[in-house]
């Protein structure tokens, strides 16, 4: 018979005023399933934690139920107290009677009733909790960075500066998108010089090993222990690393088939094509040039953020070369976030660049010139003849994105870019531990933002993967019984983390406990009950549910 | 559709036997997996036959299904793929169960070829073993008349009794004292050609009869399912339906799809509770039936295998209490399969919906505002 200790936290007035804790204590006492009930004003306070630890020791409680706030807030706090009191931290069940009862149910009687049910459920569940032990594994501190554009280069440098060995891999040469650019906005920096400077820094870093013209063939393993196989000049090379950063970039959207913009006509370019080739080939007789913003935005379904400012950069470049040419920007909405870009916009206007807002626009041929037909909101159609049209299109994912997503078991979003773990709280991490994403492969962004992500990913790796330190693995994981499993593989299919595989020799499924995140998909889908979750066992769930439904 | 029509005044089993013998002689296959009558005469068993002389005793289309072919086959590849080529001679529902088991990794189909047969249905085993001669006689006329009377109830409503949506290699149909040979796959084509046949005969007559039969079957099927629906509606209807169940779990044991080493519902660790628990469970209903979890077993089994249920009805044949368990599984299976636009055994490469994990489907559980 276990000695369960029940702790009721008043949470100041939060719980005490909304729930009749005396009544709960009285009822639980009568049921005679707990060895003791303690009540405290604020259990998460220093004094409260001391009280909890001492009470556990004095009363020799071996399982603990705490009725307090959300596990998200204080489960780890209380688990730590249990450890200090000499109790395995997994012998705790925290009942959320604050967010789920006190703050939800205004009627004190009903809130009390609900809290009582949840507490009874926890008492019945906690009896079946077993001690879980947090294991640790050796980890390799080296990092593989895939993609050697600005993002990959920055990531490699940041990591190398901290003494990490970095393998920087690219299917092409160093530089990525930067190689195609003439200037960077808003400071009109020379990207080629910047690139040379960065590459020069590599020479001081012996820890960076660059593999150009290399394809990634296979990635196996898990956080702390990945093996990346690449093909370099028809030779297979196997690299070992603890973490992987994907900085494979994106590509420019080419408005093929969108006839209204005249793509395919002579002197119609996309922004990138113009910067690469068109700029040096402006015909001498050219008098006017139009830049159309937001081309393909509606089709793609998102704003690429950089193209407005990039269009202004192009205007500066044109004016530098040919001050005589009139440059007109056709826009719908201008995206000018941050402290730099509004200033850049004003500078652009001051150079005599015209901005016209359109609600519809079409590009056609008119003799040797291009004719723009556009509406500017007043219902009339206007005409303008120009010599060159630049289509400012956004970014779309590189075709390799989905291959890497599949290889690494990470998600892509609705548009095909890599999906971050959490839009706000985990912008550079993925659902697979140890795999990070940075730069435009996660979504369109400018160079500054790409560098920020590179630094963020490096920071995450430097703090999570410390040389000599082992990695803790999830204790609340799944296990599969050898003697019950028939190897049907349902669990392999439903595992979102690639943690279950078939042992072909024994013809059964096995869990890689390093990869397992304890989501319980396997346990829920296993027909024979061979797969189970260590902290959500059938017994625990049954008795908990029984009391809730009682 | 084209195929080969072979006139046959003999018993169909004799003619199929000749084909099997020829395939073994020509070393197209190393062995044949086919039903054989047991020595005492009143039942049948599957045999893996290598010897041509033993092949003489096989009954490719027996009048009963004493064991479901897929269930019988399971042990053969449990420890890995075959190292020789075999031909499985089976009824359509048996092949469909084989395909399902292969998706569930319980059988390996490498080097396995299928010869499917037009199936007029089977008699109930319990009836047959009493008067085998009588049923043997009526079975041979069944292939001409295709009357549903006296057959296993699921056979009467079967809509996959021929080569309809089947993952077989070679099919043999029966029509007008003839065998109709139709190759269905490349592999089937090879077997067919090796037998010296060519697809030159027009099969319209056989197909028309088949479609007419299907139309009649669908009618009975819809009517039966509507009745079942009304009969089993709600917990009370269901209780009533299973009222005779004695928890013997025979239905599970004979089922070709049920593959667990130990059924979850027989596992003492997973489902037995503290004695106090049973008293608590009487709180709402006033009493609790023992043995416990009788209905949970049927509902659980239904949840686990209804997507793959081929409606063979072997479970009902195995029920000592004559509960129409095969019918309800067939009916529920049909509904669930329609829901997922899935047909068990149609295509070995079509994944069972429960085996496909689509992360997109999880969005409905997420905070839409945060993730979009």
UniProtKB/TrEMBL annotation, chain A:
This is Pyridine nucleotide-disulfide oxidoreductase. Belongs to the HdrA family. Residues 476-505, 507-536 form the 4Fe-4S ferredoxin-type domain. Its cofactor is FAD. Keywords: 4Fe-4S, FAD, Flavoprotein, Iron, Iron-sulfur, Metal-binding, Oxidoreductase. GO terms for molecular function: 4 iron, 4 sulfur cluster binding; metal ion binding; oxidoreductase activity. It holds the Pfam family Pyr_redox_2. The keyword Metal-binding applies. Signal peptide: none annotated. The keyword Flavoprotein applies. InterPro entries: 4Fe4S_Fe-S-bd, 4Fe4S_Fe_S_CS, FAD/NAD-bd_sf, FAD/NAD-binding_dom, HdrA-like. It comes from the Bacteria. Transmembrane segments: none annotated. PROSITE patterns: 4FE4S_FER_1, 4FE4S_FER_2.
From TrEMBL, chain B:
This is 4Fe-4S ferredoxin-type domain-containing protein. Keywords: Iron, Iron-sulfur, Metal-binding. Residues 300-329 form the 4Fe-4S ferredoxin-type domain. The lineage of its organism: Bacteria, Bacteria division WOR-3. The keyword Iron applies. PROSITE patterns: 4FE4S_FER_1, 4FE4S_FER_2. Gene3D superfamilies: Alpha-helical ferredoxin. InterPro entries: 4Fe4S_Fe-S-bd, 4Fe4S_Fe_S_CS, Helical_ferredxn. One of its GO terms (molecular function) is metal ion binding. The keyword Kinase does not apply.
